[in-house]
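Lab notebook, bench 4. We co-purified these components, and the gel suggests they stay together. Before we commit to crystallization screens, I want a quick structural picture of the whole thing.
Request: model the full complex, all chains together.
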Amino acid sequence: MTGAVLLRAENIARRFGSVVALRSADLEVRAGEVHALMGANGAGKSTLVKMLTGVLRPDAGRIVIRGTAHVFRSPAAARRAGLVSVYQDPALVPDLTVGDNMRLAGVAAAEVRRWMEQFGLGFVAPGAVVRELPLPLLRLIDLARALAAEPDILLLDEITAALPADLAAHVFAVARQWRARGRAVIFISHRLAEIAAICDRATVLRDGVSVGVVDPATGGEERIVSLMLGTSPQAAEARRPDHRAAGRPALEVKHLRAGELLRNVSFSLHPGEVLGVAALEGQGQAELFDCIAGLRRPDGGVILADGQEVRFRHPADAIGAGIVLVPADRVQALLPQRSVRENIALPLVRRLRDWGALPMRAEGARVAAAVRRLDIDTRAAAEVRRLSGGNQQKVVIARWLAHGFRTLLCFDPTRGIDIGTKRQIYALLRELAASGAAVLLFTSELPEIALACDRVVVLFGGRVVGEMPAAAADEPTLLRSAHGLTAAA
Amino acid sequence: MRRWLRERAIVVLVLLLVALVGGIAAVRPGTVTADWIANTLLFAAPLGLMAGGETLLLLTGGIDLSVASIATGAAYLLAANAAHGEMAALALGLGLGLLVGLLNGIGVAVFQVQPLVMTLGTGLMTEGVLVVYSQKIIANQPHVPQFVVALGSGRVFGVVPIDLFLWLPVAALLMLGLSRSGFGRLLYAVGDNPLACRMAGVRVWRVLVGAYAGCGLLAAVAGIVLVGTTNAADLSLANVYLLPAIAAAIIGGTSIFGGRGGYAGTIVGALILTVLDSLLTLLDAPEPVKQILYGAIILLLAAAYTRLTD
Amino acid sequence: MSADDDDLTEGELTAGDLRGGGGGGGGVGRAPAFLRRNAPLVFMPALVIAFLALTGAIHPDFGAFDLQSLALGALPLALAAAAQTVVVLSGGVDLSVGPLMAVANVLAARSMQHVDFPTSLLLAALILLGGALAGAINGLVLVASRVPDVVVTLAAGFIWGGVALLILEQPGGGAPEAFLNLATGTSLAPWLPNAVLLLAAVVVAVWLPVSRSRLGLALYAIGSDRTAALRSGVAVERTRFLAYVVGGVFSAVGGLALTMTTGIGSPLSGTYYTLSGLAAVVVGGVSLTGGRGFIAGPILAAFVLTLIPTDLIFLNIDPNYGQVIQGTLIVLVVMGGGLATLLRQRP
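Here is the predicted assembly.
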C-alpha cells in the first residue's frame, strides 16, 4: 500500500569539530508508510533528526521533500515544508496556557481540540497553564498540536518512551491513521516490539552511515539488532539462581506513602539480590526511589537500612547509610563541563571534612579502578558532555563504585542507551549483587526485568500489586499485573 | 587549533599583556622600569583581590554586585574606628565583608534568590547604611592607620610593593585551593550542575554560603588595601572597581555560566586592565574613550571565548 | 473509538487519574492558580494605593504639587523599568539601560538647547529611532556572538557610558519650555500630571501593539523555555533581537523623560537607572528567569520606590535611609518569593 516517495535524504553528512556524527546517511520515506529510524547511541540518529527538522544544517547531502530540495534554517521552515515533529520532551512553553501555545504555533484551535478529544483529553481547559499539567498529557497535547498542522510527514521522536501503555495506544492509532491517509510517519523508538507492531520499514544507522532498510515485521527484530550492533546478537545470558539470603535485609520499606502517587508500598531487599520494580509510568515508582534516596521526605511509613530505621533529610543522609542512586536522567547527575575524574570523584568530597587538600594520588587510583571496571571510553575524558550517552551513564555508576555503597538504586538506568552498553550494565549489576551488594532496579522496559533481576515487585496505583521470582516474570504476566488487571500468582 | 587555544588561553592572555606593555614602551621609551612595574602591581592588587572573590562566584554560576559597597564599607569602618584601636577596626572592616557575604550566601543558597538581585539589594543596603553611618559619626574624623597605608603604598627595598606580600599568598592559596582542595572542586561542580551535586550527597547551600562569604571577605581585604593606597576613606572609594572586577574575571576566561575558569586567568585579566589604563593615560585618552575601549575589549574577548569553548 | 476495546477503557481510567493528580484542574483549583499567576496585577496597584494612603496619613497636606513631583520622580524610573521588563520577560537582562538613557538624555539636552518646540519634537523622534538602533546593536551582537546577555550588556553599558560623556562632558544643555512641559505640566487637571499621561501614552503606543501580536507571545515563550519555543516554530533569535529593540525604545523615552524632568542633560545618570530599574522589575513581580510577569508591575513599583524617600522626608527621617530601605525591600521581596517556593516544595 506504500506509494510515491515523500521524503528523501541523500548522503547527509555532518561533523562537530573533529567528531564525525554523520558520514553518509540516507533515508527514504514513502507516502502511506510508518518508517522506523533505528540506531544505537552515537549512530547519528539524533543528528539526522535535527537536520530533518531544521535544528541543524548538514555539511553535505540534500533533503528532498515531494521532489523539492530543501535546506531548513529553522524548525518553522521544516514545518512549512510539511514535516512536523513531536519529541520526548514536549515542545510546549511551560508558562503559557494551552491555548496560547496553539496560537504560538499558528494552528487552528478547533482542530487541536478535535484531536485532544479523540485522545480523551477533552477535559483539559485551553486556559490551563502548561507548567501545571502532567508530562504524559503534555506529550499528547503536543501530538494533537502537530496533527492539527496536517503534516505530510509526522516525525515521532521517542514519544512513547515512558508513556503509559494506554496513552501510547493513541500514538499508534494516529500513526496507523496517517498511513491510511496516504501520508507518512517517521517513528523513532528504542522498543523493538513497538517497531515490529506498527512500522512498515526500518532504516538502520550505524557509525553515521545507513546500513540497511529492513522489514521489521517478519522476524526482522534480530536483523535490526545485528545491523545496529554490526555483529550477530548473543543469546541472553542464563539467569542466576535466586539469591535471596536469609538474615537481615539491606533495605526494608514498610507502608511507604508520599504525595498523590505513592500510596502504600512495602518490600525488603537482601544483600546479594537484584530486586526489580515493574510499573507503568506514574505508579509511584519515581516517588519511591526519591524517598529511599533522600531526595524527598515520605508522608508516612518507614525505611530501614540494615535493620535501622532511617529518616533522610538530604541525599547525603542516604549515602551515609550506604544507599546510592543512579537516576534516569544522566544529565541530572553529571557535571557536563568537568572531567571524567572530577565526575567520578564528586561524592568523595561531599562532606565538610573533605573540603581541605585533596588526596590526589589515592583519588586517582580509585577513579582509575572504577574506569577500568566499567570499561569507560576515556578518549574525551576532559569533558563529560563529549562522551556518548552510554559512557556517560557508566560514569554515573562508576562514581558509586569509587565511593562505595551497600544498596544501589537504579532508576531506569538504560533509558535511551544502546544494546551493547545495556548488556554491560546488566552484567555489572549481576556482578555487584554477586559480591554482596543489594540492587533495586526499576526499568521501563519490561522484557529486561527477567534479564537482570532475581525477583520483581509490581507497582500499580502506588501499591504493590504483585511479587514474583524473575523466572516467572515474562512480559505478558508483568504487563497484565502492571495494568492492575490481575493479582500475580 | 581551536582546542590548542582553548587549553592555552592563558598563554594568549599573557601575550596580550606583554603586547600592551610593549605598547607603553613604544609610546614613551623609558617608561617601563622596575619602578613602573612595581607601581602597576601596586594598583592591580586591590582589583586582583576583588576579582578573586568575583571569580569564586562566577565559578558557582553566581555573581556579586555588592563587592564595591563592601570594599568601601570595610575601608570606611576601618578608618572611622581606627582611633578606638587599630586591630579592632581592622576586624570590624573584615567582619563587614564576612557579614554581607554571609547574607548574600544565605539569600542565594537558602532562599534561592537570583545572585544578581540579592547582591544588588545588599549592595544598596550596605551603601545606604554607610551613608547614614557617616553622618552619625561626623565628629569622629576618619583616619587611615599607618600599617594600612604601609600595606597599600609602601615598598620593600624601595621597589617591591608591600601589598604584593598579601596578594601573592592569597593568589597562591586561591589557585591551589581551586585545583587541589575539596572546596575548590565543589565550586566548579556546583556551578556546572547543582542538582548533580545534591544527588551526589553534597550540601550545596554550604558550598554557596562559603563562596559568598569568601567573596565578601576578599572584597573587604581589597577595600582595605585600596584605602591604604589612597590614604583617604570616602564613600565612593571602590565604586569604580565593581565592573572592572567582574571584567577581569571574564577577560581571564572564567565562564559567567559557572563551572569553568580559574584565578590565574583573573590575575592576568586584572593586570591587563591596569596596564591598559596606564597606556590610555599615557596616550592622553579622555576618560570616556577609556570606558568605551574597556567595553569593546570585554565584548571581543568574551566573544572569542564563546567561539573557543563551543 | 469502540467501547468494548479493553485498552481504551483502561486509557480512560488513567486519563481520569491524571485529571485528579494534575493539581486541581477543576473549577475550585483554577481560581488560586489564576490568582497566583496574576498576583502582581492585583498586588501592585494595591501597594501603590496603600503607599499613597500612608503618605496622605503622615503628610495631610499632600496635594497636587506633591503628586506632581512624585510623578516626575517616578517617570524616568518607570521607563527604565519598562525597558528592563521587556528584556527580562524574554529571558535576558539589560545592564545597559541606564547608560543608554544617559545617551538619549544628553543628546536631547545638547541638541535641543536653542531650538523651537516643533524642532525639539523632531529631534525627540530621531532620538527614539536612535534608541531602537542602539537596542538593535545590542541584540545583533548578542545573537551573532552568542555571548551571554549579562556580559554583552555590561560591556555595552561601558560603551554607552563613554559615549554619553563624549557628547556632554558636564551636566548642562537644555530644551524648549514647551517640550519640558510634556512631562512637567498639568494640562488636563491639576490632579493629573502630564508625566502620568505621557507614561500611559508611551506604554500604550509601544507595548500594547507588541503584547497583542504574536511577537508578544513569542517574547514570553522564549523567556519561558527556549527549546520549546524554537520547536513551536518561534524564531528565537529574531524575537530576542526585537526584545532589545523595544527595550532600546523605552530606554530612549526614559532618557527624554530625564531631560524633561530635570531640564538638563547629565552624562552620569546611567548606573542609577540600571540598578533601580532592575529593582523595580523584581519588586514588580516579574520573574528574573523570564516568561512570567506583566509590564504594569514594574511601572507601578517605580512609583512605590520613588514614594519611599518622599515619605521619609515627610517623617523627618534622614532620606539617606531611602537607599537602605530600597535595598532591604528588594532583598525582602525576593527572599519572600524564595521562601514561598521553598514552602510549596515542602508541604
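Chain B has one domain: 2-309. Worth comparing against the SEC data before the next meeting. The first helix of chain B runs from residue 2 to 7.
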